[in-house]
Amino acid sequence: MFDGESASLEAILETSSVSAPKPIRVCENPGGTGAVFIMEHLDIKSLRGCSSKLGEQLARLHQYNRDLQEKQLRNESRVGGMSCDQSGDQSCGYISKFGFHITTCCGYLPQDNTWSDNWVEFYMRQKLGQQLDMIEQSCGDREARDLWPQLQRTIPKLFEGLEIQPSLLHGDLWSGNIGETDTGPVIFDPASFYGHSEYDFGIAALFGGFNSSFYKAYHEVIPKAPGFDKRLQLYQLFHNLNHWNHFGSGYRGSSISIMRELSKS
Q1: Which pLDDT score, from 0 to 100, does residue 91 have?
Q2: HSE (CB half, 13 Å, CA atoms) of 27?
Q3: What beta strand segments (E) does the chain contain?
Q4: Could you tell me if 122 and 116 are in contact, meaning their C-beta atoms sit under 8 angstroms apart?
């Protein structure tokens, strides 16, 4: 778990787009079982005066990989320019696939970050499919089982006409994982991977804590694409399913409701 969080923080800090605690070391717990994650201490307060700045900086984080691609294409157009091999290492340059080079955890559940060329397939199989498999194993919910094939047929329609570029994501961007210091906004406790930039809004909108100035500043950098609101529901579905798997059937109703709604799309 901590190795993934450490790698996530390192990747975010590499972009120089938004502040985050610097990871120092993951080591065995000297007092017993498990591990200890040592990171930079920051005096983090609740987000109050930096919402707009956080929105802009999150957009810069999401845009960073696209900027690397444009830089790489310019370099390749020059005589003797060399391309970058896809290795999953951010120091390599532009990341052309969806996933991450290490397992990360959203809550305590590990995410399947195996690299994929296709975002829609990645999200259906490795995000929603993984969560629904766990629900099937734990409680065998019949309605979720029946709705899933219908939903798989409608999901690709939500992405028609869109070109999805891999963006480095925070991955668990709710109000409990953001704040500010005297120098500006800060994000922490990430579960990063490369995915669709809109994904980070799923849990942000689900639990609130982000005001209108945050969204306005973000969309001034990355405008809303057609169909945003439907895809927001789709990304909220993952977090409802993930909470169902973490905390039990209290999240069943919201999960099933979204599945029903989107299956009609």
Answers
A1: 46
A2: 7
A3: 23-28, 35-39, 105-106, 109-110, 167-168, 178-181, 184-187, 194-195
A4: yes
Q: What is the pLDDT of residues 200-252, one digit of tens each?
A: 999 999 998 899 999 999 999 999 999 999 999 999 999 999 999 999 999 99
CB atoms within 10 A of CB 75: 14
What region does 171 belong to: left with phi over 0, alpha with psi -120 to 50, or beta?
A: left
* Per-residue model confidence (pLDDT) at position 32: 81
Residue 171 tokens, joined = 């991955």
Beta carbons within 8 Å of 41's beta carbon, 6+ residues apart: 21
Tens of pLDDT, residues 70-114? 988 887 776 555 555 444 444 458 999 999 999 999 999 999 999
The pLDDT assigned to 77 comes to: 73
Q: Would the pTM of this model clear 0.85, i.e. be above it? A: yes
- Give catalytic residue positions: 172
For residue 153, report the phi and psi dihedrals to the nearest 5 degrees: -75, -30
CA angle 25–31–35, rounded 5-degree value: 35
Q: 260 CB contacts (<8 Å, ≥6 apart)?
A: 147
110's enclosing H/E stretch is strand 109-110
Structural contact between residues 104 and 195, judged by C-beta atoms closer than 8 angstroms: no
Task: Quote the percentage of the chain above a pLDDT of 90.
Answer: 87
Looking only at the bridges linking them, the beta strands covering 167-168 and 109-110 are: unpaired
**What one-letter code names the amino acid at 199?**
Y
17 touches 61 (CB < 8 A): yes
Largest CA distance in the chain: 60
Cα–Cα distance, 259 to 32 (Å, whole number): 42
Structure tokens at 260: 């029903």
Best CA proximity match to 213, nearest among 103, 44, 49, 80: 49
Residue 205 CA neighbour count, 13 Å, CB half: 17
